Amino acid sequence: MRTTVAALLVLITCAWIGPSFADPPAHAPAHGWRAKQHRYTYYRDHEIYYSPESDFWFWMDRDGDWKAGVHLPVRLQQYTVGGISIELDSDKPYREHAYVVEHYGKGPKKKKKSKY
Questions:
Q1: Which domain holds residue 101?
Q2: What is the pTM of this model?
Q3: Residue 3 has what pLDDT?
């Protein structure tokens, strides 16, 4: 009887403590392992993101609000050429848009003017 009770206590304790070792809490940085990265193709000319993992598009509408959907509006489809592959920590790339613009640019790539 004592061994059964002891085994039951060990089992309950492991079940209670076990999940706490699975992942760090959301507010803590990941130590010793890479945090989940999300891959996107960024089309900087019109600030469009495509997620191949979820087959989802993210774009800024004419009012400056971010939109998302499985289909990109027809008026923007012509601009999905020459994208840049990037990885972000967020599943919503517009949350890190300032970082993306700072590191990858915004708008068409500017050509350097020649001295001659």
A1: 35-107
A2: 0.63
A3: 78
